[in-house]
Structure formats: structure tokens, C-alpha cells
Amino acid sequence: MLVSIVHRATGTAMATVGTILLVWWLAALAGGEARYAGFLDTFTVESGGLNVIGYIVGIGLSWVFFQHLASGVRHLVLDTGAGFELKRNKIGALLTFVFSVLATIAFWAWLLAGK
Amino acid sequence: MSMDKSTSIGRVRGLGSAKEGTDHWLHQRITAGSNLLLMLWFVLSLARLPGYDYATVTGWLASPWAAIPMILLVTSVFYHFRLGLQVVIEDYEKDVTRIALLVLLNFFTVAAAAIAIFSILSIAFTTGAAA
Fold first, then answer.
1. Of A26, A73, A76, the CB nearest to B119
2. How close is the nearest chain B Cα to the Cα of A2, in Å?
């Protein structure tokens, strides 16, 4: 039940906030160096690291992406008619959250510590 | 009268009252698969970039190996979210609001896709020419 509404919420979040951010990023890059600097300024501090907005949007959107990916794959499995037994269905739903949290942590560990 | 030789039942079979049958459902699944591959490529490519300054990012995006998958990503992802948001709107809104939001959704999707694809091509052609 929860994983179903979360699938909709994460999809809607990416379709709106994610799309605007992606289009803004691409348009700023196409607009030249000064425009792109304006884009970066919104999400970074002087030294180049992320600011509070950058972390909230970055970590938020990456979790939303991994969660929607996991619950989406779960939907594809359910589409085959598999995994509808109560216990197995519940485990599958929980696993989507476990995956999205672990993937988000791994992704940001790579971004922040791996460089 | 139609020249169609098929019987009435043959014409409507599999289509349902909306006359588009299972296309919406099927396209949502097909683009789910292409999104999975393209978004994983995108997220991994972003993470592998040595930095996020203007020169590094445009240098990466100017390559056909990045620009072409990015255009495919925009096409696949935007089509997928247009189908998904349509279902959300149809489930929670009715009457005039529903129609208005569905029209707005189409405008938003097409306009956003046009800006995104134009930007990618612009970066690819101008950065490529300068290099």
C-alpha cells in the first residue's frame, strides 16, 4: 500500500522538480559559461562544495530516483503475475526501501569520498 | 460505410471503449525499460565526471557518446512521465480541472522536451566546432 503511493509521489516529484532541474541545467549549459555559473551558484558555496539547497535537492532527488526505480522494477515483476502471496509481496515492498536507502548512501559516498 | 471487411467484434476486440486498447499501459512498460538503462547510464556518467565546471560538463556532453543517449533519455523519460502523470491526474481530478491539467501536462512535456533537446544539440554542435 505504502510503496504504491510512494511510487506515484516519487514519479510526480521527478516529473516536476526533476524535469525543471534537468531542463534548467541543460539550458544553462547551452547558454554559456556565465549562465552555467548562475545555475551552479544556486546549489554551491564559494569553494565549490554543495550548499544546503544543493544537498537537499541532490540527496532528495537521488533517493527519489532509486526508490522509483526499485518500485518500478517491483511493478514489472508483479505484472508477470508473480509475488502476490501476502508475505512475499510485503517483503518485496520493504526491499524497495532498503535498496533505495542503500543505493543513495553508496552513490553519495562515491560522490563525496571517492574523489 | 467502411470498406473494412472485418466483423464488428473483430474491429473492437482488444481495443475497449477508449479505442486505444492497451497502448498506454504497454508504452508505460516499454519506456520503463528504456528509462532504466538510460537513467543508470546518466547517473553513472555524472558520478564518473572528474568535476562539474563548465568546460568539463560541456566537453562531456558535446561528445556524440553523451549527446545521443541524452536525447534518447529526454524522449523516453519525458514520454514515460507524461503517461504517468496522465494517470495521476485522471485518478484525482475530474471535470474541467482534469481537462485543463491534461492540456497543461501536454504543453509542459513538449515545451520542456524542446528546450532540453535544443540545448543538447546546441552544446554538441557549438562545443564540437570550437574544439
1. A26
2. 16
Instruction: Pick B119's closest partner by Cβ from A19, A27, A79.
Output: A27
Residue with cell 557518446: B65
pLDDT along chain B (131 residues), means of 10: 68 67 88 97 96 96 97 98 96 95 98 98 82 48
A56–B contact, CB cutoff 8 A: no
* pLDDT computed for residue A114 by the predictor: 73
Q: Which of B33, B58, B116 sits opposite A23 (nearest CB)?
A: B116
Q: What pLDDT score was predicted for residue B33?
A: 96
Mean pLDDT of all residues in A12-41: 97
Alpha carbon distance B55, A48 (integer Å): 15
Query: What is the C-alpha separation between A17 and A27, in angstroms, rounded?
Result: 15
> CA dist B95 to A35, A38, A91, Å?
41, 41, 39
Q: Quick one: pLDDT at residue B2?
A: 53
B94 sits in the region (left: phi over 0; alpha: psi -120 to 50; else beta) called beta
What ipTM score was computed for the predicted complex, to two decimals? 0.93
Q: B61 to chain A: which residues are within 8 Å by CB?
A: 29
Distance from CA of B81 to the nearest CA of A (A): 6
What Cα–Cα distance (Å) separates residue B119 from each residue in A24, B58, B107?
10, 11, 18
